[in-house]
Every structure is written in C-alpha cells, then in structure tokens.
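Researcher: Batch entry, complex prediction.
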Amino acid sequence: MSPDVLLLSRLQFAANISFHILFPTITIALGWYLLYFRLRHVQTRAATWEQTCYFWTKVFALSFALGVVSGIVMSFQFGTNWPGFMQRAGDIAGPLLGYEVLTAFFLEASFLGIMLFGRERVPPAMHLAATFFVAAGTTLSAFWILSLNSWMQTPAGYEVVDGRLLPVDWFAIVFNPSFPYRFAHVLLASFLTASFLILGLSAWQVLKRVDTIGTHHALRAALAVVAVAAPLQVFVGDMHGLNTLEHQPAKIAAIEGIWERQRGAPLTLFGLPDEATGSTRYALEIPRLASLILTHDLDGELAGIADFPGAHPPVAPVFFAFRVMVGVGGLMLLVAALGAWQAWRQRGNARLALPQSFLWLLAGMSFSGWLATLAGWYVTEIGRQPFIVYGQLRIAEVVTTLPARYVGSTLAAYVVVYGLLLITYVGVLKYMAEHPAQRPTGAATGAEFGKAGV
Amino acid sequence: MFGMTWAEWLPLLFLGVMGLALLVYVVLDGYDLGVGLLLPAASDAEKDTMIASIGPFWDANETWLVLGVGVLLVAFPMAHSIVLQALYLPVAVMLIGLILRGVAFDFRVKAPPRYQPFWNRAFFAGSLLAASAQGWMLGHYVTGFESGVLGHAFALGVALTLPAAYCLLGAGWLIMKCERDLQRRAVGWARRFLWPMALGLAAISVATPLVSPTVVAKWFTLPNFFALLPVPLVSALALLTVRWVSTHPALIEAGHGWLVFAATVLIFVLAFFGLAYSIFPNIVIGRMTLWEAAIGTASLNIVFVGVALTLPVIIAYTCYMYRVFWGKARALTYG
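Model: Structure tokens for the complex:
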C-alpha cells in the first residue's frame, strides 16, 4: 500500500459521500414537508395547496434521483476502496447496511413511483400512504446508516477475535453511545437544509414576481419549522458535543484547538492552527469559555492534542470546518428569528410581505444547509482519523491494494461528472423556480404527452 | 447435501437471495436500459412516451442491484472485495453510466428546453455505458478474471451481446406498453435485435467451455449433458417465439405482443441458470467457494431474519406497484 493510494481512496470516498449527502439531506425532510402539503391539500381542497404540492414534488423528484444514483456508487465503494473494512468489521457493518437496503431502500423506491405519478391511479388514501412510506423510508434509511456511522465513531457491543470485530450485543451496536445524538443532529440538519431551500427558492419566486399563494404557503410552513428547528439544533449540537468529549476527546481537542491539557481552557473564536509548532497563531480567545461550555465549570480540565500521540486527527480542517458549521448555524438562527417574527405579525394575510433585503438574504441562503451539513460531516469524519473504527481499526490497515492510477483516474471522472451535475442541479432549480408551471389537468395527449407534467 | 448443517445452509440461502436479486435486476433494469438504448431511433414525441413507460419503475428496478451487491457485501465480504477490486474500472464505468441515465430522466424535462437534446443523448450514452460495462464485467467474471487476449475477447463478446439482449427486452416492453406507430416500431426493433443477440448467445455458449475447463466437466459429461439439454432447446424455442410473433403483425393486433417480452425474459432466466450451474459452488471462480467467502453464522442469522421478513413484503409491494401502472403508458404527471 502506498500513501498515494490511501490519500486518493480517501479523496474519492470523500468526493462521493460529500456529493451524495447533499441530496438525502434535502429529501429526508422534504418528504415530510410533502406529506404535510398533501394533507393540507386533501383537507382544504384548495388549488393553492395543489400549487405547493406540485412544485415541491418536482424538486423532490429531482433531488431524489440524484441521491439514488450517487447512493448506488456508495454501495460499491465500501468494497472497492476499503476492502479491509468489510473483512474485519463486516460482521457488524454488513447487517446494518443490509437492513438499510431491506427496510428502507425498497420502501422508498417502490412507493416513489406511486407518490409521483400515481395520484389518478390509486385511491386518495393510498396516495397519502405512498407519500408517508417515501418519507418514512428516507428517514429509516438515515436511521440505519447513522447507526453504522455512529458505531464507527463510538463502537460498542462487540468483541475482537483474531483481528475481526464480531457482534456480541446488537442492541448496544445499533444504539451505540453517539447514535441518539447524531441521529437527532442530522435529522434537524436535514429539516434546516430543506427549509432554507424552500425559503430560498420561494423568496426567489417572490423577487422574480412569479409567486403564487402556494409559494406563500411554503414560506410560512418553512418559517415555522426553522423557528423550532434552529434553536433546537443549538441545544442538540451542544449535547452531541458533550457526548463527543466523553467518547472522542481527541476530536474535541482538534475542534477547540487545544494543544496541551489545561484547566480553564479559553474558547478560540478564530485563529490559524499550526500543527508543526503545536500552537494557534493569531488566536482570538475568550478566557475559560471552552471549559465552561464543555464541562460546565470555569476551571474544568480539557485534554489537549499532545495527550493523543499518533492517534489524533489533523487539527486545521476539523478546527475550520467546525467554525464554518457554527457560523452558518448562527446565521440560520438569526434569520429564523427574524422571519418567524414577520410571519407571526402577518398571520392573517394570505401573502407574506417580507422586506426586499430579507428576501435577498433568504435567496442567498438557499444552499446554506449544504454548507453547514458538509462542514459538520467533515468535523465528525475527519475528527475520527486516523481510525476507521475509533480506537480499533486504522484506516491505513483497510485500504485497497489497487494501483494509484486506477483510483486517481476514476476519482477524476467522478469529480467531472459530479461537478457537471451540481451546476446543472442548481441551475435547474433556479429555472424551475422562475418558470413555475401549473399542474396539467386531465389526460395530456399528442404533443404534450410526457412533457406536460414531468 | 441434505446432511448439511444450518451453518452450511445459510450461505447457500444467501447465494440464492443474491442470485434472485441479480436476475431480477438484469430483467427489470434490462428493459429500462434497453428502452434507453433504443431512444436515438425514435422521434422526440416517441422519446417522451418511451421514457414515460419506464418512469415510475426505474428507481425501484435499480434497487435490486443494490440488494444484489449488498448481499455480496454483507454475506460474502471476502468475495465482494476480490470481485469488485478485479472489476474496479468497469464498475466505475457502469456507475457513471447509471448516474447519467438516472439524472437524465429528470434533467431532460426540468432543464430549459434547449438542453433537452443533450440530456436525451446523455440518457442513451448512460444506458449504453451501463449495459456494456455490465456485459464486460459478466464476461470477465466468468473467465475468472483471465487477463489474456482470449479472456478479453470473451469479455468483449459479452459486452456486445448484453446491450443487444437489453434492446430486445426493451422492445418487448414497449410492445406491451405502447400503441399504434410506436408499437409497430418496437416490433421492428425486436426483429432487428433478435439476431445479434441470438448470435452472441450462441458464440458465448460455444466459447465458455473454451475459456473454462470446469464448465466442460459440468456440461459435457453423461448424464449431465442430457439432463441439461432442455436449457439450450427451450432457449432456441423462445428465440423462435420472438421471431414468430415479431414477424406476424396480426398476432400483435390480437394482443399477443407480450409474448416477445415473456420469451426474452425466459431466455434471460435460462442463461442465468446455465451460468449459475457452471459456477456453483464457487463464488470467485477457481479461488473461493461460497462457504469460504461467507461471514460468521451469528451475523448471517441476524440478516437472515431481516431477509425472511422483508423480502416477501418487498416482492408484494413491487407487484402492487406494477399493477398500479399496468396497461398502456400514459403521460406522467406529478400528483
């Protein structure tokens, strides 16, 4: 194994999983939004809710397709990039992945067709049920994959036999120590990501004067969700951090930029971590605050990077990614408070009149959820290094033995394709927002065939 | 065989599940990919109808691939890493093909209209990449990843045959799902792709014993030879059925068009059986049996419970979905 192959394999896996996560992070929560929109439509019979359903179903279909195709790549890359992982931890990782496919993938994929195209072919209750199954399927999929991911961070319920990690207690494996926090954190992240996408595209429609009452239904729903989800995320994020301190102190040391074990550690707002000298240059610090946040004691003791020789993550990427995540989260909280206040003041109006500058801010934050989600993932995944299963299995032990040129050339191909798709996806969302079509009624024929709705 | 313990049975059951998943995948995504391959031969309006005929299904169809590879990964991780590392480059080609095809479904109608021709071509190109790469992988796998000239020639032969077989399957699907002109064109496509596929299958059947001595032992000894004779005979009969139906428009008019699809599926099933028989009990030919490749019994038991409980449900709602969209393809409109 050459270091090149390790680096290239990691880059390739990171490129694929970073691209993939963008779409589930939208569709997990958007599925529940669609169920809500559909329920409101069934309840009110109002054409305005029909508009909301129609537009966001199209966005869902597009996002789901990108999630599916990039997810298939993931199912192959466990074996191609990390063959040793499945050989040594496969007895635990395998069943968790298996349950994801069996309980979640088929559910969402089979009922997706009925949800998208089957409204005139099934009874209304069945159509609602199909929408529910799709939303439940995406959430269940997140449950299993986050259970495995959390187990890799905080392994539990296993024994080591001849270098293989074998299951002992499946309940302890599935509900390992970091899982409940991570699951809650990621679901909230999904709701924030989908909500800011809804807010952003709807604001764009208002700015372009192509908004309908349906647009304002979506705006109000998303503002209500962020008003709850944004503050809740701060709370859950804090609990997740405390859990990490307990189980992965090296990750916390990298996040906070703490080099040596100390009492009353300051909170570093910003700076340039330098691993060579073991210091943070130009550090802007608030005395004792890190200890207060993490130990709830001004004099609390925190471990430093120096306590984990050869077993700590690279400091700079974790340090910066964490600040990006928290920064975007803070902005979201502010926008959520302002927006919710506006929506509350105008609660009787059909149209929500928002200041021009605020609409621009919302439009600008359409993809802010992506930024925060990716940054958060980098914190937790890079923060696990140099291990693939924390404390048990190092990533260098399990990497592929393929020649570097294979890994490099396919990495280049994936990056080109994903770049093209990302640009197209964002462009198409903008185009769809600016050209909102009405749902065609009755059976389309002739030239309209197939073009009408999809 | 009946003296086997549960620990020996389990890997066999998982092999069965994996085989079933891959066969179902090849048939279901086969017709999808076939329709994609036929796309350039159709007018713009026909393209819309063709894609509408597979729109509600393709995602669920692809999930069978995830299940097949998932079982390989979960139950036979040792084989998974050998096979997928040996097939690393064609796997990447297939995945990029499936990505292009999958996103083209949405982009071709949601992007500004001037890009539609581009995404139509991407739909075709993706289908072609995926189908050929799958053929190449199958061929390379059957030779035990033989890297000589003969091995590559064999893989190339399969890489050319499988897309032709998918085209026939796709044409059969369109005959069932379309009407009037498009149905007539689909019948023409079925006639055109029948012979390349038949020729390819025959060539592969002759060549397989040449590249694999174990296949000779399994097929060309008595009494196996006679017991297995129905496989090529029924395949030939199925080919003749496709030929017969696709050259008699009156049969199509009378509603027997489904025979083209059914007979093609039968050929796929028989070819699959022939292949499985040739390889068994190896999972990596010449290197590893399924028992050597399987994970521990405790973990297999856990997954087996899941498979036993969910697979019947999955099959049930897959059937339900096909029933909902039964009949001729209509324009797709979001709910």
